[in-house]
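P.,

For your records, the input lines for the assembly:
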Amino acid sequence: MSDRDPVIGIDLGTTNSVVATVSGTQPVVIKSRTGQTLTPSVVALAKSGKKLVGQIAKRQAITNPQDTIYAAKRLIGRKYSSEQVQQAMRTLAYRLVQGQHDDIKVAMGQEELSLQEISSIVLRELKLDAEAHFGRPVTKAVVTVPAYFNDGQRQATKDAGLIAGLEVLRILNEPTAAALAYGFGKNVRGKIAVFDLGGGTFDVSVMEVGEGVFDVIATGGDTFLGGEDFDSRVMEWLVFGFAKEHGVDLRKDRMALQRLKDAAEKAKIELSTSKESQINLPFICTPPGGTGALHLQASLSREKLEELTSDLADRSCQIAEQVLKEARLRASDLKEIILVGGMTRMPRIAESVKKFFGKDPCKGVHPDEVVALGAAIHANSLVQEEGQVLLLDVTPQSLGVAIAGGYVRRLIPRNTTVPTSTTEVFNTSKDQQTTVKIMVLQGENDVAHQNELLGEFVLTGLREAARGVVEIEVTFEINSEGIVSVSAKDKETGKRQSITVTASGGLTREELAKILDQQGDYMLEAKSVEQVGAKRSELESTIKEVKELLPQVRRLTADSDFGRDAIKKAEKSLEAAAAALANNNLSALSESLDQLSRTANLFRGVVQRIGNGG
Amino acid sequence: MSEADAIVGLGARSDFVATAPQTDRLRQSLTPDEVVVLAVVGRASPISEVIDRSGMSEPKAISLLLSLRAKGAIVPARVSRPSHQPTVDAGSLEEVDLDPARKQEILEMERALDYQTHFEFLGVEVDADTDAVRKAYHELSRKFHPDRYFQKNLGSFRGRVEKIFRRLTEANITLSDPTRRAAYLAAHPEIVRPVPKTAPKAEESPERLAERRARLATHPYLMRNRKGHELLAEAKALMAKDDYPKAMVVLDQATRLDPKNTELSDLLQQARRQQDRQRAENELKKAQEAEMLGNLNAAAEAYRQAIALDPTNTRAAARGASLILQLGGDLKEAKQLAQRAVDGEPNNASYRALLAKLLLSAGMKKLAKKEYEETLRRDPDHAEAKAQLRKLRWTF
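Structure tokens returned:
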């Protein structure tokens, strides 16, 4: 019986990504081929035209700001015209372009890539790391997203996985993953809170854990609150100070902006352990006046950083308060507070959390790795016969339909355990109305257009009658895969219309198919090149082993028929192997490898049994 | 129905009466005796049963029923009680990746969707606190959450499982939120709160005592207990008849009623083992048939299956091993199987000879030699062992 296919869990972060798996019974982080546990979520196009990913992409960011794409997660699945995107564009060093249906494209060199494609490049890198770890193809993964991601953002993340050649078994909420990793293998019982302040997003979830069941009671967050915002506060402070001193606005210079961003992040990290940080950026710009280059020099204290970002810390606690209220719990009901995300290393954040929840947060988890580990545990429990853990997750945002007057009627409130379904009867709003348009919305705002539109459809052929007479039954359903479907039925005629909300990640199905088509060739090639390489080196080492064993075996079996036969055969296999190596063809290589490893096994047996005994 | 059976103003004794909806305000105007009878009526019961269970004299019970009817607290009802006997469902014949016991459970829960209250569905008492509700919900989720059957072929069972899980969630949400629970109880007056345990005992009149006993007899906990005993007996009978699949279904049902009973879980394990053994024998027969028909690959697969089901089946292991050797398959696997056969029956010479042969083909002459020697010790006339041992002598 063959081993199960390997499954992995991926934490696709705003700044860094991590891949993990369950090995035996323990979840472990898979190190990158260069030995790192964190892979920066950065993609770049080098001057040479080569696509770079991860650490090397990040390292060249300063010299190549406009073609280095970072923090794609903040943009994925969003609309170009949305306020958050417009706001974000102001501080981004790379260029965004509006796509055909208000989606976002990133300009990288001559190409315009969707964010799904950018993220897929990071995912593929992690996939390759995992394949190097297992020594065989890896296709199944659980990918995490912030709990507060809406349907479009989740779908877009799933598409990114698809483009990277991964079958995304499940999109998992990050705080839930963190709780899984925290509770796995321990006999935890009770209610816990996960406070996840990452690079780009903030999430807080309250859940009840017991007997391997992780029941999410409530979750909330903000997809535009994270380390990047802390960095921008520092950047703004630097830019403002510089403008006051030299009268130059550094934001106009992309390269300066990138250096500022880098310096701000470094200073922020440094201030988690020290009280004061020096920022030195020589030759930050050369003003047109020809007065010579200007240098930026500043000193940032921990107090100043806390002052610059105090509203951000407060906002996170306000959200936590809201979530606790929705869970109908008091802070004292919680058994444990788990801190996740690099930003929770900031002393001020840890302090606020402690003050708010009234107890010391748990220190047992690694804030950078815990999410990926949880994803791996979930992936493993899904494919296992009798999984050890079970997640009861919730919808992070309410689902509803637009009703007359431009308002929303919510059918599935947020924090409802999935899978779920609900039905409600609506009436026509005008006399003689024969059609109704059903607009499916996600969000908490009472005004329809302030919510995310997931999809819409029209129910026609209603009986002509006075308003309020015709009854339409609307059913919402979220299945266990998280897919939303909505149907509307004319109660009288039984006429039915429905949609399954899928293509809302910004890419249409056709676009996705096209990308996959183009990727197909590339991936096939990449895979076979890697496989050929692996087989070659395996074959080479086997040849070496057989050649070493050959004289021993010859000596030991000098006067037997078996010996003569086997040695003749082995010599033939060696010849074939040499031919296969010259040929460099995958099937020839594997065939020869099979043959030769049998010989090697036989020889090893002979040497061990006879050599040691005789 | 004879005339004598009928009660004027109520109908035949076999007719049902039901508690009228919204009796909350009415309750104020009822006498204690009337309240007792109303409690016995419950959601709906046949008149004859109410009289029997009320613990009162028949004329008294009838007069109380009549006055309740006059006050509008009960109404005549035509109820077809759902039959609790498992009916044949097309679903039970469907080929899906579920064991028969789980399939049966799912079908039963699905039927229960229609008639059980939230309390019954979660299997908790009416006065259960939030913790108990959530615990029951988590326990049942472990069985009925669709993720338990991730990427399995469930056919129509996927929809059934999702439906059951949704109801579990609804029951959990309703019962763990005090406001919602109160609303639910108000909407379902037939759900009766159990009598508070602090009821003064000394003042209990014989009538009251009888009434309490009658009500206790219908108490879900005792009902369960009785049902559990019945199921246990049934399961034992089935096991005696070697009908393990059916026994497992019954035992699983019983375990659900009484999850802490170790006798039940032991029996269930025993039944499962026996069933596997039975299935292994079937696979073995299938394999031998296939081998005779010359369908060797299928035969090898069936042998593997048989061994997976029952690792102690030495015949399957030995035949499987020799077949794999014959097919030129994975020697390591064949060796393992042969080893298993030898371990199971250490005194079987032919198993030993087979293992020796396999060791020899794998190049492990020394071990092979030892195995052949063991063979000869058990069967001094074993020709193959003798011949091979002679050949193996050259190593010295």
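Two observations worth noting. Chain B touches chain A through 30 residues (CB under 8 Å). The mean pLDDT of chain B is 78.

Regards
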